[in-house]
Write a sequence for this structure.
């Protein structure tokens, strides 16, 4: 399981924006055009604070968990990227046609890692319109099942030959060596 929590930098940025908001509000009392900056700082600090309080995203074996909501990997039919990497914005399309926006406010490295994991685990989905198999190849589980089915054991010896080999092996084992001529 991998857990992706929002970056702590967003809380710091929200605190700075709130500080600038209070300074701008104080300055607005002396010069009213500074109210425009105050309004912009209020909007910015609210947006950054909202991003900082987004729920953590967990990558589990069977499902993608965003806060309390769990989405099974088998129900994701399409994963579409946007141009946003930090914060990461992805669109997931589910079995029933439901489209969901995934928003992860993290740094670029963590965002790329999360995006890669979501794409890799969604093995029944189209990734940006391209089939999953064309990007990542065959799923590991299906590959192992095919190898097990394709490799039946062939009999090389007849039953009488197998009995003879087993008898010789038992003789060598009781003697403690494999070559009696070395005495």
């Amino acid at each position: 399981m991998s857990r992706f929590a929002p970056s702590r930098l967003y809380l710091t940025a929200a605190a700075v924006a709130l500080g600038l908001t209070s300074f701008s509000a104080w300055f607005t009392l002396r010069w009213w055009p500074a109210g425009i900056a105050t309004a912009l700082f209020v909007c910015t600090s609210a947006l950054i604070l909202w991003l900082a309080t987004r729920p953590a995203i967990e990558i589990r074996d069977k499902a993608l968990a965003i806060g309390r909501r769990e989405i099974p990997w088998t129900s994701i039919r399409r994963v579409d990227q946007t141009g946003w990497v930090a914060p990461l914005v992805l669109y997931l399309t589910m079995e029933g046609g439901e489209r969901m926006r995934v928003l992860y406010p993290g740094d670029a490295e963590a965002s790329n890692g999360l995006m890669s994991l979501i794409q890799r685990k969604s093995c029944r989905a189209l990734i940006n319109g391209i089939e999953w198999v064309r990007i990542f190849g065959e799923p590991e589980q299906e590959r192992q099942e095919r190898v097990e089915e394709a490799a039946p054991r062939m009999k090389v010896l007849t039953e009488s030959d197998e009995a003879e080999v087993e008898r010789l092996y038992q003789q060598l084992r009781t003697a403690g060596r494999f070559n009696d001529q070395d005495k």
